[in-house]
Amino acid sequence: MNRFVWMVFCFVHTIIVSGQNQKGISDTIFQIPEVLFSVNRIDNFSTGNKVQRIDSALLSSYSTTNLGQALSACTGIQINSYGTGLSSVSLRGTGSSHTAVIWNGLNIQDVLNGGVDFSLIPTGFFDNIKVQYGGNGALFGSGCIGGAIHLNNTLDFNRGVNASFRTAYGSYGHFYEGLNLSYSNKLFSGYIKAYYNKAKNDYKFRNTEEFETPTQTLHHADYSEYGVLAGAAVKINDRNIFETSFWYLNNDKNVGQTMVASNLSNNQNQSYRTSTTWKYRLNSLNINIRSGFVDNVLFYNPFNSNLPNSKHQSLSLVNEAELTFKPNENHLINFGFSYTFEKGISTNLSNNAHRNRISMFSSYRFSSNNTKWVIVTSFREESMNKMVTPLTFTFGIERQITPLLRVKGKVSKNYRIPTLNDLNWNFDGFARGNPDLKSESGFGQDLGIVFNKQFQTFTLGYECSGYSNIVNGWILWHPNADNIWTPDNVSKVWARGIEQDLSFKFTFSRLTIKPSASYSYTRSTKIVADIPDDDAFHKQLIYIPIHKAGFKMFMEYDGFSFYYGQNFMGNRYTLVNNSKYVNAFSVGDISLSKVITIRNQQVNFTFLMNNVWNTVYQVMQYYPMPFRNYQISIQLNFK
Fold this sequence. Notes:
Largest sheet: 22 strands, antiparallel, barrel
Distance between the termini: 33 Å
Mean pLDDT: 88
Number of helices: 6
CATH class: Mainly Beta
Low-confidence stretches: 1-38
C-alpha cells in the first residue's frame, strides 16, 4: 500500500507542475495550429480485419459493471464467466491466451498464464473500446491469434474543466461509486478516474445438479475493489507531445461454492500499470518512443484444503520505438523495434522464470487516389532468449466495388510464445513445465463484404466475414508416463466460421431508433490426433459454442434512451469427446436512461435490469448465474 500511495503522490505532483502556465505565456487567447499525431496501428494498418467499435452511448449503460459483463452484452464475442467471478475471452474459436488485450498501446496479458481476467477491469475507465477480429501478430506481437481487445483513453486539448460523479446501487448488496476529473488547455491535458465497488453477491440459483433442482443461495462470494487511472499530456511545442498514464487496481474476492463442491478460497489481486510516450512530428514524419511497465500480484488463500497460501507475481517491462513516414497521400510506412523483459516470481516457479524478448516490425500501406484500393502488408521478427521465432506477416486488401459495397480480405501468420507457467511451473511433483516448448504458429485467412446504404432518414449496414485459422503446435497440458502433468506442442487446431452483422438506423425528428442483429457460426476442432484413438480428434473444442446470436434495440428521444439486448449461446461441450455439454441459453437485458439539465449541468438517471426473463443458465459448467437482478445509477456531469 505504501508503494501505491508514493506512486500516486509522484504522479499527481507531476500533473500539477506540468499544468502550470509556462513562463512568458500570458492568459491572452491565441491560436496554436493543432498537431495531429495519427500513428495508431489499428487505424492505419488493420486493413482486412473486422474491427468493431462499441457504441459509446450503449457502453455508458454498463459503465458501473466490469468489462466482461459489458463485452458480453454489447458484442458477439465469447465471454467465459465463472459465475460472477473470473471472466476470460475467446475470439473466433481460440483460447483466452490467443486474444491480446492492449491498453493505450501496451499489451497487458499476464506473462504467467497468458490471460486477462475481465472481471477485474472496470468498464468506466475507458473512453473507447474496439474489438479486432482475426489474427494480426505482425502488428501486436505474441498472443494476437484470435484477435485483440483495444482499451483506449484520449487526451484532448482545449476542453477546459470536466467532472462527473456516478453512484449505483443494485441487487445482492452491490454498491458502486466513481469519480472522473479532467482538465485541459492549449498546452496541457490531464485526467484522473477513481472508483470503489463492492457486493455481498449472495444471489439465489437453481442447482440443476441436485434432485428436483432446489433453489439455493450462493455463499462466500463477496468482493470489494477500488482503483485509480490517471493520465497527462504536455504539448511541449507544435512538434513534441509527452504523454504518461498510470493504472492501479486492488481487488479482494472470496470464491464461493459451485453446484457440486465448496472449495472456498480468497483471492487478492493487485496490479500496477504505467505507460509513458514521447511523440514527435516533423512534416510527414512521426516518431513514437514508448515505455510501459506491468506488475500483477495474486495472493491465493485456500480455506478448506491442504494447499498452502501462495503468492504469484508477474512483471513485464516494455520499451518500444517506432517511426511512421508518409511520403505522399498514397503511401504510409512504419517500422519499429521493441525490447521486453518478463519475470515470474512464485514458489511454484523455478528461479530462472524470466526472459528477454527483442522484436523488429514494419508495415506498409498503399491507398489509391480515389481510395478505392487499400493494401497493407506487415512483418515482425522476434527473438526470445536468443531463440528466433518464425517470421510473422500480414497481407490485407480492401476494394470499394461501388459506393455501397466494399470487399476485404487478409492472410496472416501469427504466433504465441509459451507462458512462463508453461516453461517453468513446478508443483510438488504433480505438474512440471517444459522448457523445450516452441511457439505456437497460426495461419489465418479472412474474407468479408461490407454494405452501407444511407437514405434521407434511414441507414442500413451489413457485414459478413468468413475466416479460417490453423494453429500448429497448440500447447496442451497432459499427464506423462510418470503421471506428472506437463505441456507439449502436440495439437493442431483448425478454427473456422462465419460472422454476420446487420444494423439499421432510423431518424424521425428527435427520435432515433437503432436495431441490430448478429450471428456467428464457429467450428474449432483438432485435425491431428495427438495419441492413438484420440477422443478429441475432429471434435469441437470444449466451451466453444458452434452457434451464437444476438439482437439489440437502442432508442433515443428527448433525453430518454432505451436499450434492449437478447443474446443466445448454443451448447458448449465440457468433455473432449463431446459426450457432455452445458445447455444452450438465451438471456435478455434492459436499460432505461434519462438525462436532465439543471443550470447547464447534466444529471443522468439509469435503470439496468439483467436477465429479464429469469433464465436458469450456466456459462461454465457448475458455476450458476444469478436470476433477474437490478441496478440503479445516478451520474452528475459538471463543466
